[in-house]
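Running low. Got one?
___
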Amino acid sequence: MIRSLAHAGVAAVLLPVLAAGVPGLAGAEEAVRRFALVVGASEGVPAEEPLRYAAADAHRVAEVLRDLGGVRPADLLLLTDADAREVRASLIDLNVRIRSSPTPALLFVFYSGHADAESLHLRGTKLPLRELKDLVAGSAARARVLVLDACRSGAITRVKGGRPGPSFEVEAEAPLRAEGLAILTSSAAGEDAQESDALQASFFTHYLTSALRGAADRDGDGVVTLAESFSYAAKRTVAATAATLPGPQHPTYRFDLGGRGDLPLTRIDGGRRAGVLRLMAPGHYLVQRRDGTGTVVAEVQAEEGGRRLALPAATYHLVRRTQDAVYTAEVAVPLHRELKVGPERFRRLPQVRVVRKGLGPRHSAGVILVQGGLRSEIQGLGVAARIEVGARLVLRHLAVGARVGVSWSRAYSRRLAIDTRELALGVEGTHPFDLGPLTVAPGIEVWGVRFEQRFGEPQTPDRVTYALATGPIVQLEWPLGAALALRLETALSTYLLPVGNDLEGGTVSALFFGRLTLGVGMEF
């Protein structure tokens, strides 16, 4: 029987597991030895596009099971890009070791990779799902958990697996002889299991590992159970994939478990290489590694009173989202200790950065700017002072703007003082990107310019001419707070204008000039 999660209440019906049959982690009345086989298969059969994050999914799950799940390194088998023969042999080997173990055992099998309705696809070979299910169900372990994150493959939100058609179903036609078996899949039959470039993982595995690190610990007892972790991962996966091109992904489960209670999978305080991060302020949190990759390690919703996450001892970048704003902080999680992080540790992120990083509900932000500077000399008319005001619309990968600029200069001939005024209306397009606190935005601008010259003597009439100016620009921004930024802009442009003597009508000429301005921008 396959059931699809449609609401968070699945935990109420999921897994009345082995209170006496399978004890919890350290501190339980009866010792349990935990074994795990974790497989990440980037390559499927020849017609399938390699997956980007299947191996990373496997490493994430293995790390959590080793550090928080009570699985000893000697009892954890991690396979990446193995073929069907290697996976089969590894699972058989684990079953032999489990059978010879003097203590009760738990078997956890995880797979991320390609599949179809009949088999897993492993580096040009196939492992039938029925055979996999029989190997897991037939294990001598008291409790067996099989997690399958597989389907089809695609572009920016990749679809995992290889061929169109329904995704595989996990169903047993014969009674399971084992005392306890749970099978979890990342999507329902006929759906796609998707990867995310932003998370650098599959959606389901990302939320599953977040759950096991503490995001799913609803009762705050420091232990994450199978029901808690699946309920959290399924609910978050459905929400995160609702707006993707393949459509929402509904994780499913099948179970045949006896006993009472639930099956503990991880203990937040029990990490061999971990510390605990307690998030004291309410909000939605992303926890990212500070190792240059920006990998999202965990995602959690914290309420009043805090939420705890078990993380490898390291430095992390935290992103906290509320209804009104997005905040960031840098923290160092100590080994075997708890770090409390309150709202005072965070700084508010400018809305333009929130939009560029895709961290909030808004898809655009507006900026008003005022700046002044100098324009280089052209045709002996002197260096011009310049003032500009304008507005910009900032999108995820693009910023567009419009500005009005006024310039003035004075030059002297042998008998005249020439005052030149410029009134310019321009548009621009830039591609901003962030380098730490600095924002760099290369782009292009186009201006329409009105020149007016006054000669300071009644016998010489004023002159007016019009020009077009265009060229590349580079903008630099440094934040001065949540809504203000210091701006430095440089441009190398070309005037296209009629030129005779002192801008008198004539042929069209190209005049090159540079411009440097400094100012401030304010979000609205």
Remarks:
- Residues 73 and 371 are 60 Å apart (CA to CA).
- Confidence is low (pLDDT under 50) at residues 1-24, 152-178.
- Residues 3-269 form a domain with the Rossmann fold fold (CATH 3.40.50.1460).
- The radius of gyration is 31 Å.
